[in-house]
Amino acid sequence: MRFTKMQGAGNDYVYVDCFDEDLPHDIPGLARRISDRRFGVGGDGLILICPSEQADAEMRMYNADGSAAEMCGNGIRCVAKYVYEHDICQREMLTIESGGVVRTLELTVHNSKVDKVRVDMGAPILTAEQIPTILRSPAGPQQPVVNVPIEIAGRPLAVTAVSMGNPHCVTFVDELNDEWVLNIGPKLEVDARFPKRVNCEFVQVLSRGELRQRTWERGSGETLACGSGACAVCVAGVLTGRSDRKVLVHLPGGDLSIEWNEANNHVFMTGPAVEVFSGEWPE
Questions:
Q1: Model pTM?
Q2: Fewer Cβ in 10 A, N or C end of the chain?
Q3: Is CATH 3.10.310.10 correct for 128-265?
């Protein structure tokens, strides 16, 4: 089975072109084996690039633990790069389906290579039941879950819940450190208040237009970047009064530009997409 390793701001996945390759029989098992950084190719998960009846291609994403996920902002940029550069569809405006939702991506191309991609991530989901979370805002049951106090492992947090097609829990902290990400993150991921588990973003505010983020990602552990998480962080920053609607988010693997457009309520993410290498998986 041919595969291609790609990364967006250090968020790396193994990609399989299912336009040419048959769908694997045991996809969760393959995701676990191929993502292993010692015994496999290594990555934050497995992404299948498939034909779609309603878009130029479909992205099917599996975390490193084999669990399916609805959306990956860094992953979908890499899918767009692959679709363009491997002649599946050579347009600088593409549509990619993921989790049943079609998103539009604008490619910046130089010398037939995609340098960066701008993704219309759609409107953020702020209704608790749709995120999903059983947390409720003190302002009322229909209000966004913003700065809601909870306790994890004896640590008090004020969390904001946002879905960008996948669930996120954003916590603003005075200083980013391993205690937040590596201790609180895994406990918060599986907290019963998030029925489908949750991606955990810990954020330090540098200015109203600049944020620093680390993510404990559902099913993968800490990743060098989380694109949908950066979008959720921008939304949470606006809702809590900490940031502007356009921010530069610094992640361990690189920077992402995020804008929550006030006119149409959509969040736009711009960032890199890089092909690392290709190979053949022996199974």
A1: 0.94
A2: C
A3: yes
